[in-house]
From TrEMBL:
Its main location: membrane. It is a multi-pass membrane protein. The lineage of its organism: Bacteria, Bacillati, Bacillota, Clostridia, Lachnospirales. One of its GO terms (cellular component) is plasma membrane. This is Na+/H+ antiporter NhaC family protein. Keywords: Cell membrane, Membrane, Transmembrane, Transmembrane helix. It is found in: Cell membrane. PANTHER family: NA+/H+ ANTIPORTER-RELATED, NA+_H+ ANTIPORTER NHAC-LIKE C-TERMINAL DOMAIN-CONTAINING PROTEIN. The chain crosses the membrane at residues 26-44, 65-86, 146-170, 190-209, 245-266, 286-304, 325-346, 366-395, 449-466, 472-492. The keyword Ion transport does not apply. Residues 147-468 form the Na+/H+ antiporter NhaC-like C-terminal domain. InterPro entries: Na/H_Antiport_NhaC-like_C.
């Protein structure tokens, strides 16, 4: 029986999704999806199945683009480990504490630092938390509120940053010019943009609702933890007493600048191409590798001559940084392999395209559906990367590169993946945000959930608009107007309730 180009071609990703929802184990779910794809492709030949699995896996790992992405992730992990060891965050936190005098200023400064550190969500969570805890504590902002701001500027910022580990991962899941496709998804990534607007709105107006309101009221009275301090006996671990503000700021700025310069270099900018054309046509994989390697050399030259860290400490950070990225690398390899079977070997796209031809109403609902599916899957599994690693190969198989729905549906998949990850109590980013803020984890999850649901609900409506119009301005306008209407209504109800109690 020939399974290629039939409904059976959809079985591997469906199995991966269902297993991930049931078991909450994304690695095994992806692997079983891969095995299923190999079984169908080889007509259940035992020897052929094993051969096909590693043939496709080695083909993906042999791709120069994919290898570059993996190398970039390793270099980034090493850089993060080095900056953590140097202790510059402590120096920055002390400096910021003397400059910021208001609650609003502390919240918006925390948000701004999270935006600046957009290269990786792990680096974001740990750095922003360590830097801003003394500042927000001084302004009597609850640790739950700090954890929310950290979490809201981790994955939502990384997913719309062209120079980040997330951008590298997304481009690896797509076919053809993945980086250009990723750039096109940025304006349609509603969850990220609306989350940013919500954090600014909360920072400016001081609005709190749900469980967060009680935590903030307790913090104003001096109880930053609302009685649940898991870190009462934890001492601050400053690795290097010689760390200064520049030991945090300079490496981040240099990493961003060097990656951008190297990317436009690969796009021909220094050979006469315009900046826009060079950026759009660059080899992002090679550019990120070159930029991260140059940054690693820069960090070596910045830290060692000043004896911020020793040569042996620098060497210790190399395996530590690699270990930090093992999980991401494993997800990438399995997702690449599953995508190879789904799109190339079993030709799922041919079947789906034939089924959807002429049914424009059903197609128009896809962005909202993909957002909801991605949110549910990421919430259950606790991983954004694993979720969009499953969904993107399905979307790319369904729509040709010239179809505008490809961009909208990939953006909806990415937004849903981040939304579910943002709400999930088992998400590594959520856990690290709690750790960065030194907040009781359940408190962080319970206080953040109403905020994430508010933004997610607005995204569903806006993606319905996107599906029917494919117009980014109408889509964004629908999301922004709806979000501000909801937040303004909540604020009005709270003010009216206060007036009634007087």
């Amino acid at each position: 029986m020939d399974f290629v180009g039939t409904v059976w071609a959809l079985l591997p990703p469906v199995i991966a999704i269902v297993l991930a929802l049931i078991t909450k184990e994304v690695y095994m779910s992806l692997f079983i999806g891969v095995v299923t794809g190999a079984l169908l492709y080889t007509n259940f030949s035992p020897v052929g199945t094993i051969e096909a699995i590693f043939e496709v896996m080695m083909e993906k790992l042999g791709d120069s683009w994919n290898v570059g992405i993996l190398i970039f992730l390793v270099f980034l992990g090493i850089i993060v480990a080095l900056m953590t060891r140097a202790g510059g965050s402590a120096a920055y936190g002390k400096w910021a504490g003397n400059k910021i005098k208001t609650r609003s200023g502390a919240l918006l400064s925390t948000f701004a630092l999270g935006v600046v550190i957009f290269v990786d969500d792990y680096f974001n969570c740990l750095t922003v938390g360590n830097v801003m805890r003394p500042v927000t504590d001084k302004q009597k902002i609850s640790r739950a509120k700090l954890a929310y701001i950290i979490d809201a500027t981790a994955a939502p910022i990384c997913i719309i940053a062209p120079i980040s580990s997330w951008a590298a991962a997304v481009t690896g899941y797509t076919n053809g010019d993945g980086f250009s496709l990723f750039l096109q998804t940025i304006p349609f990534n509603l969850y990220a943009w609306l989350t940013i607007l919500m954090v600014i709105f909360i920072g400016v107006t001081g609005l709190d609702y749900g469980p967060m309101k009680k935590f903030e009221e307790n913090a104003a009275k001096g109880d930053l933890f609302s009685g649940k301090n898991d870190y009462e006996n934890v001492k601050e671990n400053i690795i290097s007493a010689k760390g200064k503000v520049i030991d945090l700021v300079l490496p981040v700025i240099f990493l961003i600048a060097s990656c951008i310069i190297c990317m436009i270099y690969t796009g021909g900018f220094f050979e006469g191409e315009s900046f826009i054309n060079a950026f759009a046509n660059c080899d992002a994989s090679m550019g990120l590798v070159m930029g991260s390697f140059i940054t690693l050399v820069f960090v070596f030259l910045l830290y060692l001559p000043r004896r911020v860290i020793t040569f042996s400490e620098f060497a210790e950070c190399i395996p530590q940084g690699f270990k930090m990225m093992v999980s991401a690398i494993l997800i990438l390899v399995l997702a690449w392999t599953l995508g190879g079977f789904c799109s190339t070997k079993l030709e799922a796209g041919a079947f789906v395209s034939s089924m959807l031809s002429g049914n424009m109403t059903a197609t128009s609902l896809f962005p909202a559906i993909l957002f909801l599916v991605g949110s549910g899957l990421a919430f259950a599994t606790g991983t954004s990367w694993g979720t969009f690693g499953i969904l993107i190969p399905i979307v790319t198989a369904m729509f040709p590169e010239t179809d505008p729905m490809l961009v909208v549906c990939i953006a909806a998949s990415l937004a849903g993946s981040v939304c579910g990850d943002h709400m999930s109590p088992i998400s590594d980013t959520t856990i690290m945000a709690s750790a960065g803020a030194q907040c009781h984890h359940v408190d962080h999850v319970s206080t953040q959930l109403p905020y994430a649901l508010t933004v997610g609900g607005c995204c569903v409506i806006a993606y319905l608009v996107a599906g029917f119009t494919k117009n980014v301005f109408l889509t964004m306008a629908a999301g922004v107007i709806l979000l501000f209407a909801v937040l303004s209504f909540i604020r009005y109800r709270q003010a009216h309730k206060c007036d009634m109690m007087k």
